[in-house]
Amino acid sequence: MTEQIGPQPKRGPHLVLMACYALFILASGSRAIVQIATQFHVAPFAYVLSAVAGVTYVVGWFAIRRAARGRPRLAEVMLWVELAGVVVVGTLSLVKKDWFPDASVWSDYGGGYGWVPAVLPIAALFWLHRTHEKNDPEEGTA
Amino acid sequence: MHGSLAPIAWIVVGYGVIVATAAVVGLALKAPRPRWLDQLAWMLELLCVVLGLGALGSLLQGHRPPSMETHVGYLAALVCIMPVAILSMREERESWSSGVVAVAAVATVVVAVRLMVTR
User: Structural domain tally of chain A?
Assistant: First the structure.
């Protein structure tokens, strides 16, 4: 076993996080594309929000990748944006049901996807917090 | 998807659960990803290909699911998820790479179930 030296770990939990984000890029992106292309008139607001979720996951994937290489700023912003999106859209889908004739990715706080969309940014923020704490001394000397 | 393919889909689901469980155990033990986990995962992929070919054959025979786009999307995802996961981790054998295999196996199980629902 080799010991890694340096502030930029290429191994760790972020691999699993990135795999989850890649899956959600696939799931929400393809869902949004199909729904917008075939039945946009049914629930335009919900379908646009699904597309926004897809874009958020793309940026989130890159943000986690950057954070794992020692540049956490984008992730610090994007993960909170993503969590806010899940909370706001999830709440709206419960309070304003007429705005959502069909579900978006973040409807019911991601209930259609086993609430993984709600857990994912929290898990990523937890990872970011722990990694950032570990890397703080090195960042100070960089 | 034709009804006769449902048993294969359930085999994919059951086997996928086994692969995911094995990967999670490997992750929990913090052991480097063993070769046999890759072999289990490739076996799952083989089952997915068999299921995918069967579903494709049923489409070519004229079977029409309620939403063709969704069904074809699930078919493509079923066949592609595991190879992408394993190939992206081929140089990486640390314990967290088992977590990636676990995520891919769970996703494959979910897609197989969705494929049966949308047949």
Answer: 1
pLDDT at A4 (0 to 100): 44
Predicted-complex ipTM score: 0.88
- Establish if A32 belongs to a structural domain: yes
- Backbone region of residue A109 per phi and psi (left: phi > 0; alpha: psi in -120 to 50; beta: other values): left
Query: Is residue A123 in a domain?
Result: yes
Interface of B with A in 72-101 (CB under 8 A): 73, 77, 81, 84-85, 89, 92, 94, 96-97, 99-100
Tell me: the pLDDT tens digits for B15-70?
999 999 999 999 999 889 999 999 999 999 999 999 999 999 988 988 888 888 88
Q: What is the C-alpha to C-alpha distance for residues A125 and B101, in angstroms, rounded to an integer?
A: 22
For chain B, give the percent of residues with pLDDT over 70.
97
Residue A22: list chain B partners with CB under 8 A: 84
Q: Find out whether A33 and A48 touch, Cβ atoms under 8 Å.
A: no
HEC string for chain B: CCHHHHHHHHHHHHHHHHHHHHHHHHHHCCCCCCHHHHHHHHHHHHHHHHHHHHHHHHHHCCCCCCCHHHHHHHHHHHHHHHHHHHHHCCCCCCCHHHHHHHHHHHHHHHHHHHHHHCC
Domain that holds residue A65: 14-134
Considering the domain boundaries, does residue A141 fall inside one?
A: no
Residue A10 is given by DSSP the state S
Instruction: Tell me the pTM.
Output: 0.87
